[in-house]
Description:
Helix 1 runs antiparallel to helix 2, helix 3 runs antiparallel to helix 9 and helix 5 packs antiparallel against helix 11. This protein starts with a helix and ends with a helix. It has 11 helices and no strands. The chain is mainly α.
Amino acid sequence: MLYILVFLAGLSSGFINIIAGGGSLITLPILNLLGLPMDIANGTNRIGIIFQNITATTKFKKSEVLDLKRAIFLAVPATLGALVGASIVVNIDKTLLKSIVGFILIIMSIFLVKKPDLWTKERVVKRNNILSFIVFFIIGIYGGFIQAGVGFFLMIALVLLEGYDLVKTNAIKVFLVLIYTIFAFIIFAVNDQVNYLAGFVLALGSITGGYFGSAFSVKKGAKWIQKILFIVLIVIGFYYIYNALK
């Protein structure tokens, strides 16, 4: 029964992660419920993430919405950051971190409504490669050791710094997460922090969710993604704050 829940968690996580982000907030508690300690749940969760993003990246590439050349450039700092994040223990108060992330997500949800064209229309921006490298390296660190919610920060950076609309942002986001998660997963695997049976059950659900999430993203376009992203930002923002305060 618990493995059925793991599959369903992967299904919902795969869809949500591709459209917006925060799917790990579903899968991590389910993996804990299965009896996995948080460190092993964190490593096991990466299997589902890898497979859902392989599926989604393939779909986005076939739909010709993935700017592969720019995605490869941004994958370099994100991957380097993820290797750092997966290798070290970050000395920051976890309660403070949750509060900060929660407030940022809620602020971004307001910004999403107040400045809708910023998210739904592709813009020509003067890209600063050095700034982008630094920002995506920092986001990669966060993704390497926490993962949950990293998609939101990637989307913010891709919209504000790179000028993409939400459809192309999603395409690059899943590519970046795929690349750096593969390398981060190796670190978890070497340290015996992976339950492969639970991971592959999770992956089966994630593949299905990732496929439907990418298809929905391409078919419905940026405005639908914007609506779903707004809801997810609000819910997960308050989730972080609630857990930090209790």
